[in-house]
Predict the structure.
Amino acid sequence: MRHDNRAATAPWIRTRLRTAPGAAAALAVLVLVTAFLAAAFPRAVDAYETKGLRHDIVAADAGRSAVEVARPQPGLELPPAQRDAEVRSPELSRVGARLLKALPAPLRADTSSVVYGVRTTKPAVADEPWLPRPEALPPQLTYVAQTGLKEHATLSSGAWPTTPEEVTSDSREVQGAVTEETAAELKVKVGATVGLLTAAQEPVTVTITGIVAPRDPRGSYWSADPLLRSPSLVLDPASPFPQHYWTGTVMLAEDAGPVLLSTSAEPVLFWRMPPDPARLTGPDGSRLTSVIASLESGPGLLKVREIAGDTAVVATGLGHIVEANARMRDAISPVIAVAALGIGSVAAVVLLMTGALIAARRRGELALMRSRGGSLRGIGGRLLAETAVAVLPASALGLLLAVLVVGEGRWWPGALAAAGVGVLVCVALPLRTTLQHIRPTLHGAREDMVSARPSRRRTVAELTLLVLAVGAVAALRRRGTSATGGTDLLVSAAPVLVALIAALVLVRLYPLPLRLAARPMARLRGAIGFLSLARAGRSSAGGALPLLALLLALATAAFGGSVIAGIGDARDEAALASVGADARIDGVSERATLPDGLVRTVRDLDGVRDATPLRVEYSVSMPETETGDGNAPSAETDGSGTGTSGDAGSAGEVRTAALVGIDPASYARLTRTTGLPAFPAARLKAAGPSAPPAGGTESDPGRVLPAIASPAVAARLGVEPRAIDTLSGEFMVQVVGTTARVPSVSSTDFLIVNSASLERSAPTTLLLTGTPDAGELRAAVGGSGKEYAVQTRSEERARYVNTPMQAGAERIYLAAVAAGAGYALLAVLLSLLQTAPERRTLLARLRTMGLTTGQGRRLLAFEATPQALLAAGGGLFTGWATIALLSPGIDLVPLALAGVAGSDPGPVALRTDLWSLGLPAAGVVALAAAVAGVQAWWASRRGSITELRAGDSR
């Protein structure tokens, strides 16, 4: 019988996990969160780009987004029977099916909305006497025979148009239908007939058998050609004076297309294929642009002509929609990349800090294994195995959570990101731990900045990194943030570069002021101040890693908060530029004035703080520029921000400007309330020659009115009085100052005068400040008996609704701010936990010398405060420097205002947001103090004997 005398050995991984389950669980949770964020980011970017592309296609006009293949009618050289067969439904369906299959990926058609048929491109005059003639001109109608009428409409009255007999080009009677709107406007009833002349001037009778109502009026079937749904009054281009006539569309039976071949209305065959955005993704945008270009004028068009005929053409506005979406994506991507690279860097540093903490806690254990003959390969393999057991499942779970939370997006970028997190932890922890034990060292050497002297290699490495970072930042500062090849990694790495510079400099300079401050502290009676400064000056030699993590986290949080604040500021500025105040009342026409009773009623409403009446007259002709007189205004400005400034380059382009008549006192209050530069009301004072004309007398055209102008208008008018002719009277103006912006008009060319000096000064606009209720305001305006336009700043602000791409980018930045703050706090905890055993031992030793509990708490708090203040101050500087570097080249308009018509406030640059800059830094200091207090409290509950065991080398 054999006996196995080998000693039983427990599995290494199971023993380690049972020995320290808390450390393994904490590492797994950290990897889980980091892997989730890493995998969720590319999926979130894919998701908002996909939703943005689909939104832009769906929101666009159906006539622009649809892909239409069209060709002229069959040639006259063909037999009549063949010509008729080519425009009937079977042949059109066969060609349409082949075209659908020939669409190159990723372009796919919405088969439920595909339409094909025959339509006339030249309107035909309808001379029926019962048709309306608003200005003595008969209507002009177009005709279409297309598929899908019964599927996209409901029958309101009559019957569906049919073809009782086979329709040919020789047929002279067909059936048709019109929509309810067309029937109402053109007075069409069931049974009415409309004549259509052939090329030989023979009449074709179209009998209206039914009136239909669209099922989806905004759908592609009805919106691709708006006349199909609704008639329109159009201006006659051939008339010498303005005359209008009705135009609309009559829908023939599906197989009635051959009859249009006999007319001179230039019929064409068409196949309209609306795109199916549900099958498109964000990354498909570039391929879709290439595919559309090929269909319009490339290999794709040749393939289309093989199917539909040699004269077929492809027309679509889908390419322009996709290109506009790509421009917005390209504008947003550099801003998003800053957040991604910043958070990714700080997450990597925090993971390395976690490895350093674990390595410090297990240094004695691994040193013992090394002294007993353990090889580096064997120790590293065991560490890799036990780390992989906890890390790899956590990474996989993080990826799974990211897929579940962000349900739409490519899977492989997220999988690579989560795998990268797992590989980093699995490799970094064993590598860092084993490298410390290449050479056996005696235990007990003090590891602080007093005894530690960086090696030459480390000094050279730090100097190299410092030079590279400074050079990169300098290049960034000179070149700006414009990148022609997509996202510029140098721009995106600005927070990392600045944080790296700050960390390398601060970690070297940090102990010096503390040691200097410790000298006067040594002369004081108490020992707490001296001990705390002495210990703070002897921080760990690896302190650059925690400091770098904190600086990166704080800089990223500050940048993200500034982006979010800048978006809000841009929308507020755009709303103010559009409305001019908190509310605005305008006449429906330029000549409409506001009665005094309405002004008094509105002024007395609840929430109205002040009312400023204005007289605004647009398109006032400016006098010609006088050349050679040397009277261009000089660039003199006063403290209010206004002055006389000329722009000779744009003066010649100013032909018209807006005239604004104001009450200087109330207008000055308005500019102060809206936050604009102070307005020099005294310069427009109505006195002397510019005083108001006496009642009942006409104003003197030679009167000279002082005026505040925009720079371009001032350059055109010069400094001498110039005569202008307006609806408010004839007078001369002399520019006495300039201002670049006013809250009353959105035009950049304007002229402001005192309304009291005008011959006709009745206000046309009323600007309100305060918090007026929009409903009460409209009710008061409606009670005046006239129609006026009412705008409120809050409603205009709400108009800037986020597109999916904008909303997704904002959510990413909110997540970046939260993640940056969280990683900053985690970095503080890790740095304090790394020195926690040493702190407990210190307190135990000092308690044996008479240190009280309160003194111990103050000692730990004072020791942690300098490091926390260093990190907070460095974070403030890094965040400010990052924003200062990137603000000149980052425009937030695509994030804030893209896709909103009429919003053009100019470039919106980054600005420092004090809350996002100061709150995380203050949180770091508060957390450091709180952790130090908890450590002191916990150490006071443990006896000194527990901490100072015999033989403990701590």
User: Anything to note?
Assistant: The longest strand covers residues 608-621. The two ends are 51 Å apart (CA to CA). Residues 628-649, 950-954 have pLDDT under 50 and may be disordered. The longest helix spans residues 318-361.
